[in-house]
Design goal:
The complex is a heterodimer. By secondary structure, chain A is α/β, with parallel strands linked by helices. Chain A is built from 15 helices and nine strands. Chain B starts with a helix and ends with a helix. The chains are: A alpha/beta, B alpha/beta.
Chain lengths: 290, 446
């Protein structure tokens, strides 16, 4: 597939991913240079969505590895199917096979449980590998990823080195719960996705919740934008502003005023402190009727 | 190498001089990225940024250096940049703090909400309709191809974004009340500033830059204003520290194989060891005893350390926080303020020898074999007896003693500093000149 920046821009647009030159260039380069793309930004800014859209653009599978504390090779790369190996051992023992015959097939691909990383490496065609929230994984796991990200190969001691038939498009996301190592950053292209600006937010709302009145959509976008500029524990994400827009539609809100905001604030804000803070400023935040 | 290649290398050199860390591999990536993206100004800038800038906090510096190196970028693709002179960490301030080094560099024109800056006056000021169209192209949310094409015809899609304040954008969106609405909020809301819609640093990027700046500022350079800023940034650091400590001290879900239970389980399956059973891993118990110097030169570093540790209190079995000048007092926080019991004389002269004596007198209640002592101080004892022998005794009683010293090593052992005597008795003497060092130092402790 001949990848050009226009192809990427059109693909993003077709997938209804509202974007800018920065995102397009980074995604295009990740494909053109076969480099992993590290996307950082606040939670709910649309980082994971980039990988999903990328899979849609390339018309391929998305393989997702959700990182968490304590994630290890067995969960991320591969695991031997221990139970199946035992069954095989017992069956072969009854057939009177010796160790040499047994050991040749006991550690073959047949007994290997492929986890997301190995699955992506050994896929017969280009897939998108999403390593989500890498900052949640331990530093040891991050170090383990280095070989994969630089050479697109992994070492399975019993099988040797497994190289990618077709290099996957790798997207890593991070909320910066901890600093990632320079070694990892060096191997990736970097993209920071911040919350959208006012105009972009309005367009996202209009695109994703078309049944909301355009005037209310603009007011909602302005309000969410203003809230994000307050020092909240958890500023509202794009997904939450869309949920809020849908809630406004379902409630049949005709005018975005203080009572409507107070009634629906739980959709946007998930901390009581944040809620109290915004409620105190609700009158100032609500756009004045023109 | 081509002239263009040299220009990119010069850009990389300047970025390195501006303390942006760039490896050789990243330089090569940058060349390849430009090769793939082409020389169109905005694409080239974004391609170089994707390959070279791995921390959004460096982006403002990158944009400045890029504009300096590629004149076309300034004349064509200039766009409003965040103010750099404001107080660090102010809500929503998009710009990084002034780093001094860039003070004599040419700056882009200051932003003006009423009259957005234009790129070198090359093109006549566009009409509102043109701005509207440009804004469409810049935001390009499924923008019509014509809009983008128009922006591209100008030679640079970024021309669309240049100088468009949020007011202008709102006006372009057919919303004349937006500017008024934006002023309607209180100072906190109104003071957050606006930005170019598509690619200026957003509030999160601005916060990251401010956090990074305050993390690197030496405690010695703090005034109450910087302390306030550091205090604001502390939530992030506390969260990071708590996460790090909980990871280190977490109770792992599985320890060694428990053979007795594994064999017993295997009996149910005809002896096949299909179901491995593991012993529960014993948790690591760490008791912390904090000794923080609250004298004038140390108060900022000490208070910040106490707050960071207080945020991770639940990760330890026991935490005792003591502050001292010439004697010790129990430290706690009430509504974010440090409270001492009994109150210390803040004008007393530091006497760590006497403090060590008091700790020794109370060691039955303060120390155990699992205690890690963390001392924050500069070891300046006003030429009073250092009593390093007492510190040695305490170190024998507990697991480890770590000393965090905010002074630079060049100042250790100068004047009334007794740090050399203390350094012999502690497990490690760690320099922590700023918040970043402090976080790393504390992480080393656990």
């Amino acid at each position: 597939m001949d990848v050009t920046q226009e192809f990427v821009a059109d693909g993003l647009r077709r997938a209804h991913y509202i974007t800018n030159e920065r995102v397009e260039t980074a995604v295009f380069l990740a494909l053109a240079l076969d480099k992993p793309l590290l996307i950082e930004g606040p939670a709910g800014a649309g980082k994971t969505e980039v990988a999903k859209v990328l899979a849609e653009i390339l018309k391929t599978d998305l393989i997702r590895l959700q990182c968490y504390e304590g994630l290890d090779e067995a969960r991320a790369l591969y695991e031997w199917n221990y139970q199946k190996q035992l069954l095989r051992l017992q069956a072969d023992e009854q057939n009177g096979l010796g160790w040499d015959e047994l050991s040749t097939h006991l550690f073959s691909r047949e007994y290997l449980l492929e986890r997301p990383l190995l699955k992506a490496i050994s896929a017969p065609r280009k897939v998108v590998l999403l390593i989500d929230e890498i900052d949640k994984a331990d530093e040891e796991f991050e170090a383990f990823l280095l070989e994969l990200l630089s050479d697109f190969q992994v070492s399975v001691p019993e099988l040797g080195t497994v190289r990618a038939h077709e290099r996957p498009a790798v997207v890593l996301t991070s909320n910066r719960a901890r600093e990632l190592s320079d070694a990892l950053r060096r191997r990736c292209l970097h993209l920071f996705i911040d919350f959208p600006g006012l105009e972009q937010e309005r367009k996202i709302i209009e695109l994703k919740v078309p049944e909301l009145d355009a005037r209310i959509a603009a007011a909602a976008a302005r309000l969410v934008n203003a809230m994000r500029k307050l020092e909240l524990k958890k500023p509202p994400s794009i997904a939450e502003s869309l949920d809020w827009a849908r809630a406004l539609v379902r409630l049949g809100v005709k005018e975005l005023d203080t009572p409507a905001l107070r009634a629906t604030l739980g959709v946007l804000l998930k901390h009581e402190d944040d809620r109290a803070r915004v409620e105190a400023k609700a009158t100032a935040l609500i756009p004045r009727p023109r | 190498m081509s002239a263009f290649g040299n220009a990119v290398l010069a850009l990389i050199d300047d970025l390195r001089a501006a303390e942006v860390r760039i490896s050789v591999a990243e330089s090569i990536d940058a060349m390849r990225a430009v090769g793939a993206a082409g020389l169109e100004c905005v694409r080239m800038r974004e391609a170089l940024a994707a390959a070279l800038i791995k921390d959004e906090a460096d982006r403002v510096r990158f944009d400045e250096v890029f504009a300096r190196h590629f004149a076309a970028a300034r004349s064509i693709g200039d766009r409003p940049r965040p103010s750099r002179g404001g107080r660090i960490g102010v809500a929503g301030s998009a710009g990084g703090p002034s780093d001094g080094g860039a003070a004599d560099e040419p700056r882009p024109p200051a932003r003006d909400d009423q009259e957005p800056p234009r790129g070198a006056g090359r093109t006549p000021r566009p009409s509102v309709e043109q701005e509207d169209e440009a804004a469409e192209a810049s935001a390009r949310p499924g923008a019509p191809a014509e809009g983008r094409a128009n922006a591209d015809r100008e030679g640079d899609a970024d021309a669309a974004a240049r100088g468009l304040s949020a007011d202008a954008t709102a006006a372009a969106a057919g919303d004349p009340g937006a500017a008024e609405d934006r002023q309607a909020g209180d100072a906190e809301v109104a003071g957050t500033g606006d930005r170019a819609e598509s690619d200026a640093p957003g509030p999160e990027a601005g916060r990251a830059a401010a956090l990074r700046a305050i993390e690197r500022m030496p405690f010695a350079a703090y005034s109450d204003a910087e302390y306030g800023t550091a205090h604001d940034a502390l939530a992030v650091i506390r969260r990071r520290f708590r996460l790090r400590v909980s990871r280190r001290l977490r109770i792992a879900s599985a320890g060694r194989i428990d053979f007795r239970r594994t064999i017993r389980a295997a009996l149910q399956h005809g002896g096949a060891l299909g179901d491995l059973r593991f012993r529960a891993r014993r948790p690591r118990h760490v008791d912390l005893l904090i000794l923080a110097d609250l004298s004038g030169s140390m108060k900022y570093a000490s208070t910040l350390m106490l707050e960071i540790v207080a945020g991770a209190r639940e990760c330890f079995r026991r935490v005792r926080s003591l502050v001292y000048i010439d004697r010790i007092a129990e430290a706690g926080f009430e509504r974010g303020h440090l409270v001492m019991t009994p109150p210390l004389d803040l004008y007393a002269r530091s006497d760590f020898g006497r403090v060590l004596g008091e700790v020794r007198d109370h060691r039955a209640t303060l120390l155990s074999r699992t205690t890690v002592i963390v001392i924050m101080g500069d070891g300046r004892n006003n030429r009073r007896p250092a009593r390093a022998d007492l510190l040695r005794d305490l170190a024998r009683t507990c697991r480890a003693v770590f000393w965090l010293n905010p002074e630079p090593p060049a100042r250790w052992n100068t004047g009334d500093s007794a740090i050399r005597q203390y350094a012999r008795e502690v497990t490690a003497m760690i320099e922590c000149a700023n918040l970043r060092d402090l976080e790393r130092g504390l992480a080393r402790v656990v």
